[in-house]
Write a structure and sequence with these properties.
The protein is mainly alpha-helical. Helix content is 72%, strand content 6%. A four-stranded mixed beta sheet has the order 1-2-4-3.
């Protein structure tokens, strides 16, 4: 009958209904889990940003003239573009650069007693290097990619590696400018002894093995910029490799899903 009527395949409605009722929507569940995780991580990220901004408004003030004088002496761009330097007594805030369009440098109040003049210069130079290189912009892109592909464990590992490598590169630039390894190491040692949030110490390499890695890297600094280019090439290669790996994984998943659908269709035809 099929040859006479030229029917290529027959559809058994009872069988198809049974197959549909038994199939579990794994794709929809995976998409829902990914969207839920992305929403939670994004909300936590936004909440942290708002907390820092409120703390800056409530608990920070302009630094004393000594900090301002040192900042002007090492700032390499026009003075009107120099970022604001705020000293903060709030222990929830950590040292670093905040903001992208109009960055500001956060200085914990304890630094005024802990660091001498040379160590303050080293600290300011390090933070200024972050501003010169627009590291906050790159950090935003890095965290956005991490949040987007949060479900893959390799993304979290690569996020920590890139952050640690960024700090090492800024260390090398500061030492090349000052040629004073001793003061810079003393600055790092004193900062590592200050009580800071664990998330901050992990991301910038102030405690544990990341800190030891920074110290070893400082001991190997040379006058050439070969290591800078090598580090940049390594970071770009790592990002490209991660993107390629994720794209390949998604493509293989799509091909596997298409193959499963084809096999299911052939079974239905049989």
């Amino acid at each position: 009958v099929s040859e006479v009527l030229r029917i290529d395949a027959w559809l058994d409605f009872e069988t198809s209904e049974g197959v549909v009722s038994e199939a579990f929507p794994w794709g929809a569940v995976a998409l829902g889990v990914w969207l839920l995780g992305l929403l939670i991580i994004s909300c936590l990220w936004l909440r942290q940003y708002r907390q820092v901004k409120r703390s800056l408004i409530a608990g920070c003030k302009k630094t004393d003239p000594d900090w301002q004088r040192l900042a002007k002496s090492v700032w390499e761009k026009p003075e009107h573009s120099m970022p604001r330097i705020l000293i903060c007594a709030d222990q929830s805030l950590v040292a670093g650069v905040f903001g992208m369009r109009r960055p500001m440098i956060i200085v914990p109040a304890s630094f005024s007693q802990e660091l001498n003049e040379e160590e303050r210069v080293a600290f300011l130079l390090h933070e200024f290097q972050h501003i010169y290189k627009h590291d906050n912009l790159w950090l935003f892109a890095q965290k956005f990619i991490r949040n987007l592909f949060w479900i893959h464990p390799l993304v979290w590992w690569l996020d920590r590696q890139i952050s640690a490598e960024r700090e090492i590169m800024r260390d090398e630039e500061v030492i090349r400018k000052t040629n004073n390894v001793t003061s810079y190491l003393n600055c790092l040692m004193k900062v590592s002894n200050i009580k800071l949030p664990s998330s901050y110490t992990t991301s910038v390499g102030i405690k544990g093995s990341p800190f030891a890695r920074r110290v070893r890297s400082i001991g190997k600094i040379r006058n050439s910029r070969f290591m800078d280019w090598l580090s940049a090439f390594g970071s770009i290669t790592a990002i490209f490799g991660l993107t390629l790996f994720l794209s390949t994984t998604l493509s293989i998943s799509n091909l596997q899903a298409a193959e499963d659908r084809n096999e299911s269709s052939l079974r239905d035809k049989d």
